[in-house]
């Protein structure tokens, strides 16, 4: 356990932080202390993360620092830096996209991810390949558990971490309302400007917001999702390679999107 703590202190990555929540004992002894380790942060380039291997410095850029700050439970600070740029474009140059995704993953209540939740987790989490050869016993168990449940290792760690940073129901709704407003603004900007490469990312966030609202007791949100898209974003479409993002297992329907002769055909069928 001490090894994992020293690993995080010397190489402060999201993966090394989440490892501190791999067991209950380690989480209580080290995980909740992670914020203290960030106090000695060596600031790096605001965008890129370049570590000085010769000096063995633990350099943390602003982007990574914001991620780590979220995982220490400093949600208000992360929300504050997740500012939507003017016109809701230019997300690649700021933290708002990552911030929104982190909050959506936190607010998602099911232990097993939906396809939208899985897509969001894959977009911001670390790769399973990076941890497949770990030799620490608790990590072997987590890897086996993830393989059994068919979830990513990052998803497994995220669920373990989340239980140590509870949030009141009314606060959750406030964060969701904030995220929803930004995502809807983003969708309007993306679709209005026909930035088609970003369509799938926006669709995933819109779908996940609908799922979270459903989990919070607002019935029918998922069933209203497709009509909402058709009404408000008439040029919105998803390519065939992104069809998995529109699967709604809980609602007994899914959308098949087929590309043929540059036309999109959408069909709905009951499972």
Q: What topology does this entry show?
A:
Layout: H1 2-10, H2 14-19, H3 24-29, H4 34-38, E1 42-43, E2 59-60, H5 62-71, H6 75-81, H7 96-107, H8 115-124, H9 137-149, H10 153-162, H11 169-192, H12 199-215, H13 225-232, E3 247-248, E4 253-260, E5 263-270
Report on the architecture of this protein:
The chain has 271 residues and is mainly alpha-helical. Helix content is 51%, strand content 8%. It has 13 helices and 5 strands. It has helices spanning 2-10, 14-19, 24-29, 34-38, 62-71, 75-81, 96-107, 115-124, 137-149, 153-162, 169-192, 199-215, 225-232, and strands at residues 42-43, 59-60, 247-248, 253-260, 263-270. The strands form 2 sheets. A 3-stranded antiparallel beta sheet has the order 3-4-5, with no helix packed on it. A hairpin with a 2-residue loop joins strand 4 and strand 5. The radius of gyration is 20 Å and the shape is globular. The N and C termini lie far apart (46 Å). 31% of the residues are buried. Residues 237-271 have low confidence and may be disordered.
Number of separate strands: 5
Q: Determine the structural class based on helices, strands and strand pairing.
A: mainly alpha
Q: What spatial form do the alpha-carbon principal axes imply? A: globular
Radius of gyration (CA) equals 20 Å
Number of helices: 13
- Seen as an oligomer or otherwise, the chain set is single chain
Strand order of the largest sheet: 3-4-5
| Average pLDDT | 79
Segments where pLDDT lies below 50 for 5+ residues?
237-271
Describe the sheet with the most strands: 3 strands, antiparallel
Q: H/E order of the elements? A: HHHHEEHHHHHHHHHEEE
């Amino acid at each position: 356990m001490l090894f994992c703590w020293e690993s995080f202190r010397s190489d402060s990555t999201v993966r090394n932080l989440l490892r501190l929540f791999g067991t209950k004992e380690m989480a209580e002894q080290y995980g909740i202390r992670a914020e203290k380790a960030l106090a000695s942060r060596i600031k790096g380039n605001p965008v890129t993360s370049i570590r000085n291997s010769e000096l063995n410095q633990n350099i943390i850029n602003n982007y990574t620092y914001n991620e780590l700050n979220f995982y220490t439970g400093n949600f208000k600070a992360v929300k504050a830096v997740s500012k939507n740029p003017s016109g809701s474009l230019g997300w690649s140059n700021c933290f708002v996209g990552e911030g929104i995704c982190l909050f959506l993953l936190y607010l998602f209540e099911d232990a097993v991810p939906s396809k939208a939740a899985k897509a969001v987790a894959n977009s911001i989490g670390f790769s399973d390949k990076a941890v497949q050869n770990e030799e620490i016993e608790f990590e072997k168990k987590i890897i086996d558990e993830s393989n059994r449940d068919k979830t990513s290792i990052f998803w497994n760690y995220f669920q373990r971490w989340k239980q140590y940073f509870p949030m009141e129901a009314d606060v959750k709704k406030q964060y969701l309302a904030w995220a929803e407003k930004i995502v809807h603004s983003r969708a309007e900007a993306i679709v209005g400007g026909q930035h088609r490469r970003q369509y799938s990312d926006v669709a995933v966030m819109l779908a996940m917001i609908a799922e979270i609202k459903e989990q919070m007791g607002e019935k029918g949100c998922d069933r209203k999702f497709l009509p909402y898209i058709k009404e408000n974003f008439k040029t919105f479409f998803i390519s065939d390679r992104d069809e998995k993002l529109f699967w709604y297992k809980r609602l007994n329907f899914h959308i098949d999107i087929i590309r043929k002769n540059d036309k999109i055909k959408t069909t709905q069928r009951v499972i």
